[in-house]
Amino acid sequence: METAEQLRDRLQAQFPAAEIAVVPNPGPAAQHSLLLGAAHARAVALFLRDDPALALDYCSNVTGVDWLQAGYLEAVYHLFSMARPQGGPVVIRLRTGNRTDQVTLPSLTPVWRSCEFQEREAFDLFGIRFADHPDLRRILMWDEFVDHPMRKDYVEPDDYEWEPTAHHEVLAKARPPAPAPPSGPPEGTPP
Length: 191
What we know:
Layout lengths: L3 H11 L5 E4 L9 E4 L4 H10 L7 E10 L4 E9 L9 E6 L8 E3 L8 H12 L2 E3 L36 H7 L17
Parallel strand pairs: 2-5, 6-7
Antiparallel strand pairs: 1-2, 3-4, 4-5
């Protein structure tokens, strides 16, 4: 399997206008990834899948990452080849413009069908919108839920009365507080 740098160079030759950068991983696995610009991400993904030397025909995992301090979100895809036993993993990343109004990335579900539910999860929990996704709707939270609970700045609500199926700890939090003891002498007591 090619190194991330070799793969970047090959992709850059195939797609000269595409933004492609190696993101180093300083951890022990040193599993570097490729950061793809959103404009060419789907074309690059198709090449990764269809190139006979790579044959990255399986996306095993899609997840979201909230880079709160940097001000953007990422979708991270782990790719493998079922056709070539030594093929993979190759990790690609797509980055949003920010965390508020530029959170749309191209869906890679048309390239790898296994991305469908996982992109929905990243949408639901992180708020990443995937353009041209075949069924982009919440998958874990209920439809009326507002916010994205895996974001680092998510604040847990004080009031759980609106949760449709309160249970366990949530049910305990949803109970109304005990009435406060009366202050002063009881009614009818002479002063």
